[in-house]
Design goal:
The chain has about 180 residues and is α/β, with parallel strands linked by helices. Helix content is about 20%, strand content about 25%. The chain has one domain: fumarase (Alpha-Beta Barrel), CATH 3.20.130. A 5-stranded mixed β-barrel has the order 2-3-4-5-7. The protein is globular.
């Protein structure tokens, strides 16, 4: 029996509250790709009271700066970026409705507190498997920060994109010794 939990963004707080650290998930639907410079701009946009390029409420942001697509491909290699690069910006985005983030590695106590307070999760996906992960992306469109090149904000449509709940909305983490 497959225990993988299916996620279809936009996610609700109730969706997120069903997830626990260590759960395997499969994502199908729209995910937004952004890295640190794009995160900084998103936070500046929020601070200025301006409209974001996508609806943050219920969204999943994948910490991704893909390589250029080869001819005939939708996207290049699409592996996760180190999550801590977004730590300064994540609490603001979570407070404004972001329900899930996806990258690799550890998150700060401030990010973990925001996950608990607002009902969000951090997902991890497989580092070093960028070519494999790109096969789960069926469309990719730059929607903001085009001047950032590979770090531009992209709207991705994914099918059966694999991840693990690394930090849940209850303060638990796969990185802690459960022993």
């Amino acid at each position: 029996m497959d225990k993988t939990k299916q996620l279809q963004p936009p996610l609700t707080e109730a969706d997120v509250r069903l997830l626990r650290a260590g759960d395997e998930v499969s994502i199908s639907g729209v995910v937004y790709a952004a890295r640190d410079m794009a995160h900084k701009r998103l936070c500046q946009t929020i601070a200025a009271g301006e409209k974001l390029p996508f609806l943050l409420e219920g969204a999943i942001i994948y910490f991704l700066g893909p390589t250029p697509a080869r001819p005939g491909r939708i996207i290049g290699a699409a592996g996760p970026t180190t999550s801590s690069r977004m730590d300064a910006f994540s609490p603001t985005l979570i407070a404004n409705g972001l329900r899930a983030m996806m990258g690799k590695g550890y998150r700060t106590d401030e990010v973990r507190s925001a996950l608990k307070k607002y009902g969000a999760v951090h997902l991890s996906t497989i580092g070093g498997a960028a070519a494999l992960l790109s096969k789960h992306i069926v469309s990719a469109e730059v929607i903001a920060c085009e001047d950032l090149g590979t770090e531009a904000v992209r709207k991705l449509k994914v099918v059966d994109f694999p991840a693990i709940v690394a930090y849940d909305a209850y303060g638990n983490s796969v990185y802690e010794d459960r022993g």
